[in-house]
Amino acid sequence: MTTPRPAPQTRFYPTGGIELAVHEWASEGSGAPLVFAHATGFHGRVWDAIAERFPAHPVFAIDLRGHGLSRAGPIGDWRVLARDVADFLQQSGITGAIGIGHSMGAHTLLQVAPDNPGRFAKLVLFDPVILAPEFYAPSEALYTEDNPHPAIRRKRDFASPEAMIERFRARDPYDLFAPRVFEDYCRHGLVAAATGEGMELACAPEVEASVYASSRSNPGILGAATRVDIPVLVVRAQHTTLNDFKSSPTWPELAERMPQGTDLYRPDMTHFHPFQDPADAARIIAEFIGEE
After folding, report:
1. Which residues contact 216 (CB under 8 A, 6 or more apart)?
2. pLDDT tens digit string along 56-98?
């Protein structure tokens, strides 16, 4: 049983024309900093249930550009996310951190690591949305203005977090989430609506759709992986098809590309592993950093 940590303090770091929001918990011990980066469409507070299991560590959970409180428009290049995170790490003076990422957030941390040596001591990457080399070969755009990603049609407006909880609780894939994580997602995933009435998604549908549409924008990620000479754990879930949000998109050979990479295949989990079972995700992190 874990004891909830006090609510984090949210600080804002200027970078690339936006204010990057980072939710920060003070440490009760001398552990290395933990830096969390979330998946597309989510926000830093989805990590609360995992962060509270590491009270000896200062925790920094980032709202990536266009998500949570990091207000921004559509994203055309994933490399700007890495630049944002690198700016935050430089401004905060963080070194020797444990980077923990999921999906797009994991991809982002893997790009940051070789370009900013010393900032990270280890990485734990849950399904980092890094695919086989052929995915990044020149080809037609995945989505266009005339054929946008379906996320652009997401419901934007809600009367309250409770209304969002009620609407999505029994829906796929949210019905897989641990109740605590699902409620954190809803309660911190809304902001006051621009109309002045009710609330709206913090990650606007057009922003979420733009992230999926630009998923080929960082073809250098596999080359970056070969330069990440720190221990890296790649946690892969079951794979079905690329169009299934619950399927792992991660290239099975990714860990082999890294000098100190380790692959952990978990076919019993979906792409939403940290949301499905935060206790298991925390156990994996603890084991990898030598605390269990």
Report:
1. 135, 136, 139, 142
2. 999 999 999 999 999 999 999 999 999 999 999 999 999 999 9
Q: Which residue is it, tokens 């019993």?
A: 268
First to last CA, the chain: 15
Q: How many CB atoms lie within 10 A of CB 167?
A: 13
Model confidence at 212, pLDDT cuts 50, 70, 90, reads very high
pLDDT tens digits for range 16-25: 999 999 999 9
DSSP, residue by residue, 192-228: E-TTSSSEEESS-HHHHHHHHHTTTS-TTHHHHHHT-
pLDDT of 149 strictly over 90: no
Q: Nearest 5°: phi and psi at 64? A: -65, 160
Relative orientation angle of helices 179-188 and 161-168, to the nearest 10 degrees: 140
Tokens of 139: 């080809």
Helix (H) or strand (E) holding 234: strand 232-237
Q: Are 3 and 52 in contact (CB under 8 A)?
A: yes
Spatial contact of 222 and 257, defined as CB atoms under 8 Å apart? yes
pTM of the model: 0.96
Per-residue pLDDT of 251-273, as tens digits, reads 999 999 999 999 999 999 999 99
What residue ranges define each of the domains in the chain, with the CATH number in brackets?
A: 12-157+207-288 (3.40.50.1820)
Across the chain, which distance is largest between two alpha carbons, in Å? 53
Place of tokens 């991660």: 250
Cβ proximity of 187 and 161 under 8 Å = yes
CA–centroid distance for 239 within its chain? 19
Q: Which amino acid is at 284?
A: I
Q: What is the strand order of the sheet 97-102 is part of?
A: 9-15, 18-25, 59-62, 34-37, 97-102, 120-126, 232-237, 261-266
